[in-house]
Amino acid sequence: MTLSVLYISYDGASEPLGRSQVVSYLRLLAETTQITLISFEKPGGADDPDTERLLAEAGIRWRPLPYHRKPPVFSTIWDVAAGVRALRSELRRRPADVVHVRSYVPALIAVLGGRRRSWKLLFDIRGFWVDERVDGGLWKRGGTLYRVGKRCERWFFREADAVVTLTRASVPQIRHWLGGRDVPVEVIPTCAPVEAFIAGSSGNGGAKTVWCGSIGGMYRFELGVRLAQAIGRPFTVLTRQVDIARDQLRDTAADVREVPPELVPRELGQGDIGLCLYGPESSNVARAPTRLAEYLAAGMPVAVTPDIGDLDEIVEAHRVGVVIRGDDDAAIENASQALLELAADPGLPERARAIARDRFTLEAGADAYRQLYERMVAA
Length: 379
What we know:
single chain, Rossmann fold, 2 domains, seven-stranded parallel β-sheet
């Protein structure tokens, strides 16, 4: 019997995140599972020929919906209402065994649209979204949006037939929110096209320190700048937020560029040092940065801040990076020296790539999802 899964993503399938973290998984899952994808697309995304081709070739039915950004809150309510209609329409067209929701807004769509449901609900949390909104300065802790969000969160965990989280460190909190319900809680970290980064990393141009990804908010780019200065190698910043990066760099010399996601593997190389630095927010316990997997697959040592999901355990137990426990000058200097020693260690690239292959491949992630679907339907 072929399982039927309806997958709901608030990230557009045509966006870089949706392409790497939704479409890549679903194409693998579609080899053995009937997949319908409902996604919310920014202007032009629903007509993207590459996305249409990738999904069609995999046999995935795609129902793109327009994403609305403004006005705040009301635009999301509008999208949720459209998502409920699309969910019910697609379920009439093709009944699902599992509705797989990626994060909280899709979860709201599912619980509103799934009364008297016959399908199982997989709540793929992707992080503690409500707390992340507070930690990122978007919501006020204790405010109206926070209280409503927390009430919805409790609702989602009550309705879920299984939960997927990105980190082992987040499981105790999830079990607490489940209130003793004996449902599967599966840890499937953010995965990456590991082999592409292994094959693409060349180290051309000499060893450097690399910041890859977003800047501002919960990210500690200013700490990354200080660490790069202490390391003393050329500093490369790969980000969409080029102007913000240049402004924060001030007089620090750096190569700042926006690079298409498919070209990032060519920018990373053996001997480089990767930076993955966040602030001390409580929601970080459920965070699994994609960049960690990419840096490791490229054979690079990684600098991380403490208490970010499972990162402490990964980098320290396997000697593939340094946890920066402090931001004073002595801590920065000690971390820079330890990172330079790791970068010079001839065994580091193989250790890093072994961890990437063991934990972060798309194939392993898709297989874990496939097995969880089967367990849910059999229960």
